[in-house]
Every structure is written in structure tokens, then in C-alpha cells.
Amino acid sequence: MSHSAYVFDAYGTLFDVHAAVRKHEEAVGPDANLVSMIWRAKQLEYSWTRTMMGRYRDFWELTEQALDYALAAVPTADTSMRAALLEAYHRLDCYGEVPEVLKQLRDSGAKLAILSNGTPEMLAGAVSAAGLDGVLDEVFSVDPLRAYKTDERVYEMVTNHFRIYPETVSFQSSNRWDIAGATNFGFRTVWINRTNLPDEYHDLPPNAVLPDLTGLAALG
Q1: Are 118 and 90 in contact (CB under 8 A)?
Q2: CB of 5 within 8 A of CB of 164?
Q3: H or E element: which one contains 145?
Q4: Integer Cα distance of 152 and 175 in angstroms
Q5: CA distance 56 to 147
Q6: What is the DSSP letter of 173?
């Protein structure tokens, strides 16, 4: 099957969410990895609970709140690193294979886009830091909807904008819950299982599973 568009989740798929803490690992303290894990888990938790309650706060605010919780939850963490960690999150590293994979897909003539919970400002910073300016056709943020994934309206932003059917979209995410939501909407889904996690949401399986984005173009 040929796909009209390749759409990527941003955080954890294109951009390494743990790069911010890793950059300041020694200064954060001996449990820096735990801080990073809690930060990410709470960031996602807050997005889901806020959507279910209908009490939206943008993703940057949730990112700040999640970091505050992580720093408070880990006694060895140096709380004075808060500002430096937030600054680093604005300019996360992309995974090594990302630029070449996007170039391959771009050369094939497909549309390329990001679909993310991140705010427009967060995404602009990450895209710029990764040198991906000019590679992507569109960067979709949930901010105008004031609701987070896996709300179906988020995935519908792609089909409405490009005026294409869901089945012509290949959607890539490292988050299994996001893959479940996109599968439910009708996208062809590719789970980028970077950390070899066990599968879940068995009633909403991905069309393919890859350890990183390298093999995406070969899927067709």
C-alpha cells in the first residue's frame, strides 16, 4: 500500500524525552534516571486526566508540573536544576536515524507531519534544534482542540488538513497507547518500540512493530 502521508508522534518517537535529564545527569544527582522516568510518566498522566475532566492546561504547563512532582518525589534530586532542565526540554535531541529516514520519505513524495500533544512553541523549538526545519509539511499541535490524545479529534486534524482518508496515513509512535488510539481512528500504525516493551491493547494491534524508524521506508 502506498501512503499519502507519514505522520509522527514527537516525544519519544522523533525526540528523546530523556535527553534533558541526561544532559544534566551529574548535577541532578545519583537518581537522575528516576527523575526522568517520573517526569515523563506524570506528564502523560496529567494529559489523560485533564482531557477526561475537560480541564485543559497546555502541555508546557503539564511538563512544568510533572517536573516539579518528579523533583519533589526524589529526595536526592537537586531542585535548583529545574530551570536548566526545562530549558533543555525545549531543545531535545532527536534520535540518530531521524534525519535520514525523513529525507528518504520526503524523496518518495509523501507528505510528512508531526502530530503531538506539545504546544506549538515546544514543537518549534524541538524541530529547530533537530535541524528539521523545511523537512516537514505540517506540525500539528493539539492546542487548538484543548484536548489530548487519544481523543479522535486529534487524529482527525491530519485527515481534515490534507483531505485524505485515514487508511492512506502511516502513523508512527513509540507510545503504545497512542498507537491504539490511531489504530482505532483508522490509520495504518507502526509502533516504534525503542525499549522492547511487551505489547498491550491487543484488540487494537499495530500494523507493524519496529525497534526504531530505520526500517520504515521499506514497509511501503
Answers
A1: no
A2: yes
A3: none
A4: 16
A5: 6
A6: E
Q: How many other CB atoms are there within 10 angstroms of residue 1's CB atom?
A: 9
| pTM value surpassing 0.90 | yes
Strand order across the beta sheet in which 138-141 lies: 138-141, 111-116, 5-8, 169-173, 188-192, 208-210
Tens of pLDDT along the chain (220 residues)? 468 899 999 999 999 999 999 999 999 999 999 999 999 999 999 999 999 999 999 999 999 999 999 999 999 999 999 999 999 999 999 999 999 999 999 998 899 999 999 999 999 999 999 999 889 999 999 999 999 999 999 999 999 999 999 999 999 999 999 999 999 999 999 999 999 999 999 999 999 999 999 999 888 7
Alpha helices in 54-140 (DSSP H): 59-73, 82-90, 98-107, 120-129
Q: What residues are annotated to the active site?
A: 9
Q: Which three cell numbers stand for residue 122?
A: 515546544
